[in-house]
Amino acid sequence: MHFFATADGGRQSFARSGYMPAHSIYDNYQTSGRHVYPDVEQVAPGTRARVQVWFITPHVYPRSLWLGRELDVMEGSRIVGTLRIDQIFNDTLTGSARTYSSRWMPPFDLA
Q: Does the 2-93 domain belong in CATH 2.30.110.10?
């Protein structure tokens, strides 16, 4: 996770485990996720840290993540940082760049 510096539009304050920003999964879809920073107590604007993210409702956006993918981390409409996917624990989310479409469509089982 890379938090942008405050002067570059990033957060005004530290982030701590439990922080729940939005994540841009598709051009037209964001989801919330709970962050845990296992190596540090807090992350300052303008710095990087390893993060574990628990996304809500992953069944709504299956196959949308792959190793190396970068996601915008947002507070409202403001991008405050980016994160790179290094590991995926929920198989529902595992996809590939080759099959990914940038526009979200409801999965068949939700329609």
A: no
